[in-house]
Design goal:
about 575 residues, alpha/beta, seven-stranded parallel beta sheet, two-stranded parallel ribbon, elongated, disordered N terminus
């Protein structure tokens, strides 16, 4: 840990501050801004045991230089342990408390200890060590109930009685603790409420958009797409914290114990912002509109399944639900109080902020070594030429194959000839073409004729061994299944065999021409559609599987023991 004693002796005008949560998304931006101003000694405090710097990152390069010069130091702090906070804040005049970030845990007690009890510890430590100013990074979500729009909302808005997520509830409690602690033991406090923060290194909003886009859901617009939202570039949030800390000295009577909304002062349509991000990341813009009530009804069903059937969907459910609420409601805020009392105004425009964000993500994507895994449809088709044809990756080959298969369909089934006659004529035609190709010159009218080498018609010994091995494996597996059925008691095997045989019976009950036509049509459409909506199909299947599993659990409890044993098996 680098100490700042020498810097204080050499630069007596420098003030010491602590950025608690300084390695988080907003905390990193605030640390960089404080260091660039040149008037602060910055103590970076975070939960990591040691400070990890990334080469090539501009903010980390600045922090590394400040660490070597004594203008910065790092403290490992767990906010659940007050003594660690005391050690980090002792001797400082300002604490910027970013709050815990990236809490994806469904552990209620853990989140409570970090967000609420941790805030109590921060306040207590600041009072004990004589810190004069405490600025807390809250969120505009604390006044949003998830059902009513907010238009030009100001600080007179009250927190709702019931919050849409556990984390928002705890953040509202933490904010209340901060404002109530004002003027206790000469500690001045205030809280900032930024709305939908984004920027380079974003760990929440933009990554959520990117994940939704990759999964295919971002092609949908929830509602009419006309709802307005306020967004805040991360540099502006960092700037607002410094403005608030300075205003606690000059405008204490108007700032201390208050909350302030922070935005880019430029409300835009929520889905216009999403479109800018999607297109900047190289994905198509949202186009299909779906009713809000339909989406919320699906989430209500999932919540019922989560509560009544004893299985959970993890933190992804809460994140997706929160995104739907943001995406379908108007949320704009009035920042007149912040402009008047703390002197805040955006230093980066919304357009420049979007451009910087997309540029950062483009560089991050280029520097990553992650290779694109083949899709499940590609794997199912063997990741070879068949996959390229059926998934329409080479449109020329796909079209040629489709035409040839249709010709074969006509030749065998529509022409009215018998199967034997059609096969004989086809083989005769193939023999003529093959013989003509063999005696043709190597060049006709300037077009080269590629000859087929004789070994192209040979089958290698390794291929024959593999074929024989596969036949033997299939035979032995069938024998094992028959033995298992003969012993009885394996209901799963019985249902699989019975279902397969019944499906085969349904297939054979139709004509061969109908089956060939159905297979031809499905082969060139089903796999392609499956690849486009792969994640949606698997998620729907997973939800149905969970629902069936939950219903089976209920049936096992309510049915008699004999029936329950059958269902359970």
């Amino acid at each position: 840990m680098t100490m700042e004693g020498d810097a204080v002796n050499g630069d007596s005008h420098l003030k010491t501050c602590v950025v608690l949560g300084g390695r988080g998304f907003i905390g990193r931006s605030l640390v960089s801004r404080l260091l660039r101003r040149g008037s602060w000694i910055v103590r970076v405090a975070d939960s990591a045991r040691s400070l990890q710097l990334y080469s090539g990152d501009e903010s980390d390069s600045l922090l590394e230089h400040a660490l070597s010069s004594g203008r910065a130091s790092y403290y490992s702090v767990d906010v659940r342990d007050k003594s660690q906070i005391v050690r980090a804040t002792e001797g400082s005049c300002v604490v910027f408390y970013m709050g815990a970030s990236d809490l994806r845990s469904n552990d209620y007690y853990y989140c409570y200890k970090v967000l609420v009890k941790g805030t109590r510890n921060v306040i207590s430590a600041c009072r004990e060590t004589g810190v004069r100013k405490l600025v807390y990074n809250s969120t505009a979500d604390v006044v949003f109930n998830g059902s009513q729009d907010i238009r030009d909302g100001d600080e007179s808005l009250r927190c709702p009685c019931q919050f849409q997520s556990m984390l928002t509830d705890f953040k509202a409690q933490a904010e209340a603790l901060i404002t109530f602690a004002n003027d206790q033991d000469s500690l001045l406090t205030c809280a900032l409420r930024p709305s939908i923060v984004f920027g380079p290194g974003d760990t929440e909003f933009v990554p959520s958009l990117r994940d939704l886009t990759k999964s295919g859901y971002a092609k949908f617009i929830v509602g009419k797409g006309e709802n307005m939202s306020d967004f805040t570039y991360v540099e502006n949030v960092a700037h607002a914290h410094i403005c608030a800390a300075e205003a606690l000295d000059s405008q204490a009577e108007f700032v201390a114990g208050k909350e302030f909304f922070i935005t880019n002062l430029k409300p835009v349509r929520f889905w216009d912002f999403v479109t800018h991000i999607n297109e900047g990341l190289g994905y198509p813009r949202p186009s299909t509109k779906i009713p809000v009530q339909l989406v919320l009804g699906c989430f209500s069903l999932l919540k019922w399944a989560q509560e009544k059937m004893g299985f959970g969907f993890g933190s992804s459910y809460d994140a997706a639900h929160q995104f739907i609420l943001l995406a379908s409601h108007t949320r704009t805020f009035n920042c007149n109080a912040a402009k008047k009392h703390i002197g805040y105004s955006p230093i980066v425009t919304l357009e420049d902020g979007i451009a910087s964000t997309l540029q950062w993500y483009s560089r991050a994507h280029e520097s990553s070594d992650d290779s694109t895994d083949p899709s499940k449809a590609d794997k199912l088709l063997g990741c070879g030429k068949v996959a390229d044809i059926l998934l329409w990756r080479d449109e020329k080959k796909t079209f040629t194959s489709f035409v040839l298969l249709n010709i074969l369909y006509y030749w065998f089934f529509i022409s009215g000839k018998s199967l034997t006659s059609s096969t004989t004529q086809l083989l005769f035609l193939f023999a003529i073409v093959l013989y003509g190709h063999s005696i043709a010159p190597s060049n006709i009218l300037g077009f080269p004729i590629k000859k087929i080498p004789p070994w192209s018609f040979e089958i290698s010994e390794s291929a024959m061994r593999d074929l024989s091995r596969n036949i033997v494996f299939a035979w032995n597996r069938g024998v094992r299944n028959v033995k298992s059925l003969g012993r009885g008691g394996d209901w799963s095997m019985f249902l699989k065999v019975a279902g397969s045989l019944y499906l085969l019976r349904l297939i054979l009950s139709h004509s061969l021409a109908t089956l060939f036509f159905a297979a031809l049509s499905m082969a060139f459409t089903v796999f392609f559609i499956y690849e486009q909506y792969e994640l949606e199909v698997h998620q729907v299947g997973w939800i149905l599987f969970k629902c069936v599993k939950g219903l089976k659990r209920v049936a096992v409890v309510e049915n008699p023991s004999a029936s329950a044993a059958f269902i359970s098996s």
